[in-house]
Write a structure and sequence with these properties.
alpha/beta, Ubiquitin-like (UB roll), 6-stranded mixed β-sheet, two-stranded antiparallel ribbon, 3 helices
């Protein structure tokens, strides 16, 4: 698995952290079976991590592989209401401690956080259409 270092701001001497993301979605899992190992700035949130995954996907695939979406972020996150869609399953933990990012998507993640993101949770009956 390769590391991807994403610079989200122009600050120098910024502390960095490692985030591991697994996206459980057929097209994305096929192209990235080992997930994404990211090195992000210390104050990065799950939203920043998903943006970094979008950069990785577009670099490798040229475009987002799921036709009706422009990005993973669009697929999972409602930007006007600052929340994840109901059909999105999210498991986030650091050192065996569960983190509830669903209630606060902008909270900074600890170093060595693991994220399992399931954009289209089949068990969900309250399905929402993503906004553009």
């Amino acid at each position: 698995m390769r590391y991807t270092k994403i610079r989200l701001s122009s600050w120098n001497n910024v502390q960095m952290k490692t985030i591991l993301i697994f996206v459980r979605q057929r097209e994305i899992s096929k192209a990235f079976p080992d997930g994404f190992r990211l090195i992000l700035e210390d104050d990065a949130s799950i939203i920043d991590a998903i943006k970094a995954v979008d950069i990785e996907i577009k670099e490798k695939a040229g475009k987002f592989p799921i036709e009706k979406y422009k990005s993973l972020l669009q697929m999972v996150y409602h930007p006007h209401e600052n929340r994840f869609y109901n059909q999105v399953a999210i498991h986030v933990y650091a050192k065996s401690t569960f983190l509830n990012v669903r209630e606060n998507p902008l909270m900074p993640l600890p170093n060595e956080t693991t994220i399992v993101l399931i954009p289209e949770n089949g068990c969900q009956t309250d399905w929402e259409e993503p906004v553009e």
